Amino acid sequence: MLIDLHTHTTASDGADTPSGLIDKAIAAGIGVLALTDHDTTRGWKEASDALVNHPSGSDMQLVLGSEISCQDEEGLSIHMLGLLFDAGYQPLIDELDKTRERRLFRMEKIVGRLNEAGIEITLDEVCAMRTGDATLGRPHLADALVARGHVASRQEAFDIFLHNRSKYYVNHYSPTPETAIKLIKQAGGVAVIAHPFASKRGKTLEIEAFDPLIAAGLDGIEVDHPDHSADEKSELVSLAIARNLIITGSSDYHGDGRLNRLAQLTTHPEQWAHLESKANQRRVVKR
Question: What is the CA radius of gyration of the chain?
Fold first, then answer.
């Protein structure tokens, strides 16, 4: 069974609508799919309705979640996948809303830095690249830079201007990963750290940085991710085994034409069963 626990839609910086993602996942034969848009749950209803009412009668299971933007005390960007949590738990939803709001101020600063360097782009152009009130992120800025002709592709925009070590990069308010984990757990969900050793994205976590995350209740590590090298995966597997953490694999899919393919990497069924059992109740959506 194909299990993909990390995907995005137009509710944040993906290219597919939530219902469109459901169509593609069913067509691809995926058995379990997690919807994890950045700092939001706004795609949940559309995706859930699309699955429940799908004409194929698919028995695919939908895992509702969010990829929560975090940073540690030194400003290092860390992403936490919260899965199977209760969206009625207001403290967590309030934290997601606060993080989303601060993304706008961050984007203004990045655009300002680009303008100061002679790279013409406006905040309106960036916002025009998202769908509705989708969570604003650097991929939208990348698409605006492509539209302006500054770069040829989203990947080139990140390689030149938008990576974490870039002089144009700006942090934004986000909770510490420990806070995010605690809120996810209080909401009855499970917490999996996303792509923690993806060195080509920028600075990565040190091994000892996992200690406070595990103490806060971390459930798993996203090991099989397109941005992890073979050596990074091996080190993470050893860590997960030593610390009794669940191992997941995911595509981090953002849509056709983007780098990662749907179900490019997946989670073993036994690991998924273990992860799901850690939620305080069964919240998987199915027909």
Answer: 18
Question: Do the beta carbons of residue 21 and residue 44 sit within 8 Å?
Answer: no
Query: Nearest to residue 276, comparing CAs of 218, 177, 216, 189?
Result: 189
SS3 209: helix
What residue segments make up the domains of the chain, in order of their start? 2-97+172-277, 103-162
Q: Name the pLDDT band for 208 (thresholds 50, 70, 90).
A: very high
**Fold type of domain 2-97+172-277:** TIM Barrel (3.20.20)
Give the range with max mean pLDDT: 18-32, 102-116, 169-183.
18-32
What strands, in cross-sheet order, belong to the sheet with 2-4? 2-4, 30-35, 61-71, 77-83, 190-194, 220-224, 246-249
Mean pLDDT for the stretch of residues 14-37: 97
| Fold adopted by 103-162 | DNA polymerase; domain 1 (1.10.150)
If you ran DSSP here, which 8-state letter would residue 171 be given?
-
What pLDDT sits at residue 129? 93
User: What percentage of the chain's residues is helix, strand, coil (to nearest 5)?
Assistant: 40, 15, 45
Identity of the amino acid at 31 = G
Summarize the confidence of residues 147-175 as an average pLDDT: 89
